[in-house]
Write a structure and sequence with these properties.
Largest interface: A-B, 28 and 30 residues
Structural class of chain A: alpha+beta
CATH topology of the largest domain in chain A: Uridine Diphospho-n-acetylenolpyruvylglucosamine Reductase, domain 3
Number of helices of chain B: 5
Order of helices and strands of chain B: EEHEEEHHHH
Strand order of the largest sheet of chain A: 4-5-10-6-7
Mean pLDDT of chain B: 97
Low-confidence stretches of chain A: none
Radius of gyration of chain A: 19 Å
Distance between the termini of chain B: 42 Å
CATH class of the largest domain in chain B: Alpha Beta
Oligomer: heterodimer
Number of domains of chain A: 3
Number of strands of chain B: 5
Helix content of chain A: 25-40%
CATH architecture of the largest domain in chain B: Roll
Mean pLDDT of chain A: 96
Number of strands of chain A: 14
Helix content of chain B: 25-40%
Strand content of chain A: 15-25%
Radius of gyration of chain B: 15 Å
Order of helices and strands of chain A: EHEHEEEHHHHHHEEEEEEEEEHHH
């Protein structure tokens, strides 16, 4: 790694001030499992690294019936993976988390880091969006809340200003009878980036979210509209799965061709919906 | 920066640059070269150590982040796993072995009677290019 300045602020205000002072030349550090790789491989440059792990109050993973699940910025993927309440009420998120890297990586990587990195193929994003997650953001100008669905602006790009940090994710409590599915497609079972990921949250307000087939994770809105208020049957599932494939905008890269990805959106959406019956 | 941590039960005080990984600090500053540097980007697991009871890739952690923490490396380990790896031929070239054993130790600490599937799930982030994993899985299962 190249030389960088290093700070361990103990308040959000201090962190925001440091990020503002260095402009875009500072990088926040939480889990570090992406940042350190990118610094080593010189995909990202940092004059300054701001370790936010000494800021109190951001390591909380909690649930209540009114607000739902709160995932603080320092909560690791492994903590969510092992959380009984998350498994019970946010099972598609837990499924996605189990497929993120290795246990060693998940012991460091944070869920909030996964969203801030904004990789189009990131496993946790489709289930989080399908779960209607929102993002609490703190910066030099104060606080704001953004729907996770509106958080991503492109590959690696988000609505965050340089002096802003995500402090927590909030996932509303699931409606009774909700089914949640995440299916990841890759070339091997573990240590893999998704070729396609599909998350479905099935209830009165159905959501279908596709990963790795557009510059950001996307809702398959036409497919959702076909399904809303209807009873699932094979014919309807086939129509919705095709609609989802038509809405995807994949690219060809080292992991798969665009045509293959589009085909797999149809297959995985169909399988996910079949599991909701 | 001043770094004070416990390595294998012993308090160590080291002067380290903030841009050095824990892996480099262990190998180059603490002189503990049992922990191996394979890919250096979190893919291979050869650098696995246990920090405050949790297995991590030491290449993906800054050395300074270990301040005030307890780090366990292969040098400090005395466990049935080592003998079992020898008996089952689970080490060939040996490069993955320290990381593999630290990961297996972390698994057995958390789950003393893992199934074969749970063993395979746990070592998914430890790559071995010699054994095909069969002998490694056997060696770990024999320590249940």
């Amino acid at each position: 790694m190249r030389r960088f300045e290093y700070f361990e602020p103990t308040t959000l205000g201090e962190a925001a001030a440091l990020l503002a002072r260095y402009g875009g030349r500072a990088q926040p550090l939480a889990g570090g499992t992406d940042l350190l790789v990118e610094l080593k491989e010189q995909l990202r440059r940092a004059e300054c690294v701001v370790n936010i792990k000494r800021i109190p109050g951001m390591d909380t993973l909690s649930y209540d019936e009114r607000e739902g699940l709160r995932i603080g910025a320092l909560v690791t993927a492994r903590e969510v993976e092992l959380s009984p309440i998350a498994l019970g009420k946010y099972s598609s998120l837990v499924q996605a988390t189990r497929e993120l890297g290795s246990i060693q990586v998940r012991n460091r990587a944070t869920i909030v880091g996964n969203i801030c990195r904004a990789s189009p193929s990131a496993d946790t994003l489709p289930p989080l969006i399908a779960d209607s997650a929102s993002v609490r953001i703190v910066g030099g100008k104060g606080e704001r809340t953004v729907r996770l669905e509106d958080f991503f602006t492109g590959p690696g790009k988000t609505v965050l200003a340089v002096d802003e940090l995500v402090t927590e994710l909030v996932l509303p409590p699931p409606l009774p009878g909700t089914r949640k599915i995440y299916i990841k497609h890759g070339r091997r079972k573990a240590m893999e980036l998704a070729t396609v990921g599909v998350a479905v949250t099935w209830n009165a307000d159905v959501k279908i979210v596709l990963g790795a087939v557009a510059p950001t994770p996307i809702r398959a809105r036409k497919a959702e509209d076909l399904l809303r208020g209807r009873t699932l049957d094979e014919k309807l599932i086939a129509q919705a799965a095709q609609a989802a494939a038509d809405e995807s905008r994949p690219i060809s890269n080292v992991r798969a061709s665009a045509d293959y990805r589009r085909e797999m959106v149809e297959v995985l959406t169909r399988r996910a919906l079949q599991r909701c019956i | 920066m001043h770094l004070k941590l416990k390595i294998n039960g012993e308090v160590r005080e080291l002067a380290v640059e903030p841009y050095r990984s824990l892996l480099d600090v262990l190998r180059n500053e603490a002189g503990l070269t049992g922990t191996k540097k394979g890919c250096d980007v979190g893919d291979c697991g050869a650098c696995t150590v246990i920090v405050d009871g949790k297995p991590v890739n030491s290449c993906l952690m800054l050395g300074v982040e270990a301040h005030g923490r307890e780090v366990q490396t292969i040098e400090g380990l005395q466990h049935a796993l080592q003998d079992s790896f020898i008996r089952h031929g689970a080490a060939q070239c040996g490069f993955c072995t320290p990381g593999m054993i630290m990961m297996a130790k972390a698994l057995l600490d958390e789950n003393p009677r893992p199934s074969e599937e749970e063993v395979r799930f746990a070592i998914a982030g430890n790559i071995c290019r010699c054994t095909g994993y069969t002998k490694i899985v056997e060696a770990i299962l024999k320590c249940r």
